[in-house]
Amino acid sequence: MRTLMGYIAGLLFGLGLAISGMTDPARVLGFLDIAGNWDPTLMFVLGGAVITTFIGYRLVFKRLEPLWGDAFQLPTRQDLDAKLLGGAALFGIGWGLSGYCPGPAIASIGGLTPPLFAMLIAMVLGWFAARRLSVS
Amino acid sequence: MDWTASLQGLIGGILIGLSATWLMATLGRIAGISGIVGNLVTQRPKGDSAWRVTFVLGLISGPLLLMALGGDLGNVVGRPGAVVGEPAGGVAMMLLAGLLVGVGTGLGSGCTSGHGVCGLARLSPRSLAATGVFLGCAIFTVYIVRHVLGGGA
């Protein structure tokens, strides 16, 4: 049952990314290019997603636990550190270069191209590198 | 302004919010792509991997479903009927970008979905700071690439 719930969540997410146009790097870069012909689409995507999640979480957290899990697994840290902010900065540069963040990059596999394949391989290598950096 | 594109953005955003709500309601997890997939590939957590695999399959099958349905359900710039857009650069550029995205989301514990959607919805100060930093850096990068260097993406 947990695997089915995971699939439904992924499917909704993938549909959302595709319908909103986030599977098109040109849409994303058009939003990030505030000095050019600005494309507001991503603002509507993020706004719609945050507001829906804000309301949804409030309804969900009225329960004490998830339907198929032991407990809600939420980050508890509140402090800002160099790892968080430095990581976010590196991610931002990569996002600005490509127009792909992890979700759209993976969701776009149905239209796989050599550059996207290269991006996905490098992203996975980057995750391994970050893990190694974090442990040591 | 292209109102159709904006409306599709809003509808897609609401679907992403429903996905995040669904995952929290059923499995009690944050719908952060870099966390879900990154932990899956680097650690293969025992007893905690199957839902991650099916989540990824769902994520990939969403756009495939739209392609199969046909019509004009996607929102690719200037290409009605397309669902997935073309990459903005070649293999070398994407290798660099992918490495930065992987290392950055790994160290920063999240990406646009984990920090930008779920974290902001939880009013998390760490996610708010991370989102501000990666948005700012991305905007700055695009400015340099497009308006200072004036080429490529």
From TrEMBL, chain A:
<dbReference type="Pfam" id="PF20398">
    <property type="entry name" value="DUF6691"/>
</dbReference>
<keyword id="KW-0472">Membrane</keyword>
<keyword id="KW-0812">Transmembrane</keyword>
<dbReference type="InterPro" id="IPR046513">
    <property type="entry name" value="DUF6691"/>
</dbReference>
<feature type="transmembrane region" description="Helical">
    <location>
        <begin position="106"/>
        <end position="130"/>
    </location>
</feature>
<feature type="transmembrane region" description="Helical">
    <location>
        <begin position="82"/>
        <end position="100"/>
    </location>
</feature>
<feature type="transmembrane region" description="Helical">
    <location>
        <begin position="41"/>
        <end position="61"/>
    </location>
</feature>
<protein>
    <submittedName>
        <fullName>YeeE/YedE family protein</fullName>
    </submittedName>
</protein>
<keyword id="KW-1133">Transmembrane helix</keyword>
TrEMBL record, chain B:
<feature type="transmembrane region" description="Helical">
    <location>
        <begin position="49"/>
        <end position="69"/>
    </location>
</feature>
<keyword id="KW-1003">Cell membrane</keyword>
<feature type="transmembrane region" description="Helical">
    <location>
        <begin position="128"/>
        <end position="149"/>
    </location>
</feature>
<keyword id="KW-0813">Transport</keyword>
<keyword id="KW-0997">Cell inner membrane</keyword>
<feature type="transmembrane region" description="Helical">
    <location>
        <begin position="89"/>
        <end position="107"/>
    </location>
</feature>
<comment type="similarity">
    <text>Belongs to the TsuA/YedE (TC 9.B.102) family.</text>
</comment>
<dbReference type="InterPro" id="IPR007272">
    <property type="entry name" value="Sulf_transp_TsuA/YedE"/>
</dbReference>
<keyword id="KW-1133">Transmembrane helix</keyword>
<keyword id="KW-0812">Transmembrane</keyword>
<feature type="transmembrane region" description="Helical">
    <location>
        <begin position="6"/>
        <end position="28"/>
    </location>
</feature>
<keyword id="KW-0472">Membrane</keyword>
<dbReference type="GO" id="GO:0005886">
    <property type="term" value="C:plasma membrane"/>
</dbReference>
<protein>
    <submittedName>
        <fullName>YeeE/YedE family protein</fullName>
    </submittedName>
</protein>
